[in-house]
Write a structure and sequence with these properties.
- The structure is a single chain.
- The protein is α+β, with helices and mostly antiparallel strands.
- It has one domain (2-210): Aminopeptidase.
- It is 41% helix and 24% strand.
- It is built from 8 helices and 7 strands.
- It has a 7-stranded mixed beta sheet with strand order 1-2-3-4-5-7-6.
- Strand 2 (63-68) and strand 3 (71-80) form a beta hairpin.
- Helix 1 (11-23) packs across helix 3.
- The protein starts with a strand and ends with a strand.
């Protein structure tokens, strides 16, 4: 196993990682709902965002990749929590413009994407945030997530952060066990019936730990 920074050529793998992490144990995640497109089209759009000029939390520069025999097998992103929302929309707007997406369709994406606002929880402005954690099922059970988290925490510590956070769908027990094993503990959760009607999970839970 090798842990390294993601590279532009990892864009497709990062796109699949983002989709898998957002979906968790449910069939749809944020991009599925907000874009409203078939899986392949969603992955193509996210892969473009991963190498956009706007460096959002979906950008390859924010990701660590675990390789097995030279092949990407798992990944996560780790970055300061401050400003992630505006940066994400800048990336979406950039790629929407580059692909000729009509303004009305971009507005529809924005409207559909607001369904998480009532129950999304993430780290505060001074926190180091870990998100979009996923492993290719073919490489499960090899401790890749734990190794990635260790490296992500090292990066946060080196950058001067004292606390790391991670958020996930309520009911995603494999994620909860993995983060507990890595020293994270429950801090907060938010639930919303409207969110549950769309996704099938009650809301989001956030864990944190000192680094």
């Amino acid at each position: 196993m090798t842990i390294r920074s993601a590279r532009p050529e990892d864009a497709d793998f990062i796109a699949q990682t983002i989709l898998s992490a957002q979906r968790g144990y449910r069939p749809r995640g944020w991009f599925d709902v907000a874009l409203g497109w078939p899986d392949a089209q969603c992955r193509e759009f996210i892969a473009r965002i991963a190498v956009a000029r706007a460096a959002s939390m979906w950008h390859v520069s924010r990701f660590l990749v675990a390789e097995i025999d030279g092949k990407p097998a798992a990944a996560l992103c780790a970055l300061p929590a401050a400003g992630t929302g505006p940066a994400a929309w800048r990336a979406i707007e950039e790629i929407s413009a580059a692909t000729g997406l009509a303004a009305s369709k971009l507005d529809a994406i924005r409207r559909r994407g607001t369904y998480t606002r009532t129950c999304w929880v993430q780290g505060g402005e001074g926190d180091w945030m870990i998100e979009h954690v996923a492993t290719d099922p073919a490489y499960g059970g090899r401790g890749l997530v734990q190794a990635l988290i260790v490296h992500a925490l090292d990066r946060g510590r080196a950058a001067g952060f004292a606390r790391a956070t991670v958020s996930f769908l309520i009911g995603n027990m494999p994620a909860e066990r993995a983060y507990s094993k890595a020293g994270f503990a429950f801090v907060e959760e938010k639930r919303d019936p409207a969110f549950e009607a769309i996704i099938g999970a009650p809301g989001f839970r956030m864990f944190a730990r000192m680094i």
